Fold:
Amino acid sequence: MSFISDAEIVAGVLNTFHEDSVSARRPVINQEPLELIVGRLGLADYVRDGGLTGESLTDFLNKYLATATSLYHPEYMGHQVAVPHYSGALASLIDGFMANPMAIYEMGPGATSIEYFVINWMLQKVGWQPAPLNRARSAENNAHGGGILTHGGSLANLTALIVARNQVAPEAWELGVPNDLVLLAPAAAHYSIARAAGILGIGQNAICELEVDARGAIIPEKLAVAYERVQNDGKRPMAVVANACQTAVGIYDPLKEIGEFCNDHHVWLHVDGAHGASALLSDKYRHYLEGVERADSLAWDAHKMLRTPAVCAALLVRDDRTLDTAFQQQASYLFHDKEQPGIDLGHRTFECTKAALGLRLFMVLGALGERGLADYVEREYDLTLQAYEYIYAQGDFECAVRPESNILCFRIAGSDQKQLRIRDALIAQGRFYLSSTSFRGRRYLRMVIMNPETRLEHVRHLVEKIRQIAEIVDAEQGMR
Structure:
């Protein structure tokens, strides 16, 4: 067999998988025990004997895809992972075949150039000055933004906080982290923020929780109180972290007011826009990010609302000089004086060997255009609001908050345990894959509408299915 023959097999099997998913001829999720899947796929046999090509490849792929959770299924409403456009998947194939890791320009000139271009495109959407394509001019003009693509929003958030720490304690890289640094963040900040605090060495106890309103959004008027309390305790604020939008219920923090406070007090503002920053493309929903240009850094995941295959996340900074000093490294085999027609990006990120992430995003952009992606964002946000209005009108359901994005948290009357049992039953049936979250001390079912094939009728069917399962759960509890 040849690459072309096996590639045709892969394309054919994937096409069938896609068609069966969109038409709901296959379940959205099929969660079997690990040992059963390992045995069924024959992994040990292939490792011992090889031969994964031709008919064997077809058989393996069909068995493998039978285990897959299908994001293309219209009843997929689980997590914030893009239903990728096929152009992005083709980019992943191209990158995998080309194998041009791009820490240094000479290993991947095209990949680096495309990443530089899409970073500039994102900077413009934020309202920051893009970097000049001519690097000599870049050295002359210091007033521009910068960024890097990373393998995930958690890395983007961590890198942003490293940059923020360096502004307050530039000696930390060599001498260690001083013990007087704190982060100001709401309780609803993504768990990667607490992870970053641990990794950075300031500790999770150094996170000062900001007061929030009933929806979980930061109250700007309370920022001064938190800031003064920190200073009175002899601490130095390393950064304020705001959400755009928060992971649990999808609410945006008031960035304009938060930005004004941070700018006035010279505190680094990092906006975790991993999910919600894509609203910047929409004239209809961009207002949720009003004031984002006042931030110092922004995380923005293309593999959430830009239909780009996982993973592809951006860390953007208002001043690229801050990012260029994030890390200090010595690697004479990489970084040294040389003829340089482009730019090395390895010094801006943890990763040395890094995939051509920009190609994934660019090929989706090239296929759909800005307007196509904006239409997608607006459609998903609009549909989620329609779902909210429908569920809110049901007498036996309630919603956590009115959605500001494509995330909707809701519950049927009953206990927290009842919500979890309903979710378990849906997954066991292979229907309506939902996630779940806690909000203000109560457990909610969590719907994230990511699929362009999902319709309001699917939401109506979901409500009826939940009612059916709820009756069974109530009956079982009544018999105990």
